Amino acid sequence: EAFKKVISIVCPGIYKINEDNFEDSAKYILIYSQIPINFVKLWPEDKGILKKILYGILVLISVIHYSSLILALFTIADDIDSFTRVISSIECGAQVTIKATLLYYNTKELESLIKIIRHDFWPSTAMGPKIDQDILKYTKQVSTISIIQYSCGLTFLLLNIWLPFTKTTKQLPHYAWFPFDWTKSPMYELIYLMHSYFTGYLTCPVVVGYDILYYGICANCIAQFRLLCQAIKCFGTDEEEEVTQRLAKLVGIDADWKKDGRLLEVCVKYHQKLINVCEDINRIYGNGHVLQLLSSAVGICMSCYRISNENNLNNITFLFLFYLAHTSQLFIYCTISHELSYWSTCVSEAAYESLWYLKLNSEVKKSLCMIMTRSQKIIAMHAYGIFVLNHTSFVAVMRFTFTLYTFLTTIAK
What we know:
The protein is mainly alpha-helical. It has one domain (2-412). It has 13 helices and two strands; from the N terminus they run ααααααααααααββα.
C-alpha cells in the first residue's frame, strides 16, 4: 500500500496505467522497470517526438564518447591498468547504447508483450490464496535482488562522477583522449558534463530498466506456469467444475462445451499462449543476451584485476560495487531464465499427478498426453540461439572471467 501511495503521488501517469496491477502478486513488478525507462522516455508505450529526440541525443553522445575511449585505448592506454580502465568504460557504454537501441527498435513487440501480461495473463489469485502467496514471495525476492543491483550500480556511477573532483589534478569520469587540450576551460567543464550526463542520466535508467523489464516479464511467465500447473492438477477432482467455470471466463471459452474437455481445452490453449509469449521473449531479448554475457564477463574480469592491484580503500570500495553490480546482474539473468525453464517443464508433472485415469473419454486422455509430451521440451532463454541462460551458463562465465583475469595478471608481470 505504501508503494502504491508513493507511485500515485510521484508518478501519477504510471499509477493510472497500472492501477489494476498493484493488487496482483506478479504484475506489479513491471512498475519497477517502467519508472527508470520512463525517466529516459524509452518506455515502449511512450509515443511522440520527444522519444526520438532523446534517443538521437543518446546516439550522438555515444558516438563522441566511444570515439574518445577507442582513441584512448590506442594512444594513452600504455599499460594493463589503464587498458582495464578504458575497457571497463567501453563495456558499460556498450550496455547503455545497445540496450537503449533494443528498447527503441523493439517498441511495438515489447508494447504488445506488456499488454498481454497486463490484460491476458491470469490474475495471481486465480487458483486460490496459497498459490498467490507463493507467487508474491517469489516476486518479492526478484524485486529485492533487482533493487540491490540498482543500488550498487547507482552508487558506483555517482562515485564515478564524484571521485575525479577529489583528485589534485583535473581528471574525467572516463579515461578518454581528445585531439586538443581538454584540461582548459570551458572544454573541461563541457566534457565533464557530457560524461556526467552519459554516466548519471543514461546508464543506470537504461541498463537497470531494461534488465528489470526482462526480470518482470520472466517472473510473470513463471507465475502463469505455476497457475497453469495448479489448474491441471484439478483435472478429475471435485474442484474441476468450479475451476473450469472460473478460468473459462478469463480466457473466453464457451461454457457449454462438453464437461470432460472444458478444463483441458482451457489449459491447452493457455499453455500454447505461454509458449508463444516465451518465443517472443527470446526473439526480443536474444541479441541483448549475447551482449549481457560478454559484458558481464568483461566487467567482472576487469573489476577483479583492478581490485587486486589497488591499495586505496576508497577505490577498492568503488571497484567492489562495480564487481557486485555485474555479478548480481549476470546471476539474476541466469537464475530467472533457469526458473522459467524449470517451471515450463512442471506442466507435464502436474498432468501426471492429476486424476486423469478417472476419465473415460479416450480423446481427453490423448490430449493430456500431448500436453505432457510438449511440456517436456524445455523452454529455454537463448543468447542469439547459441547459448542458453541458466545456472550452468553463470558458472561457465565466472570460470571464463577467472581465465581472463589470470591472462591479464600474467601479461602485467
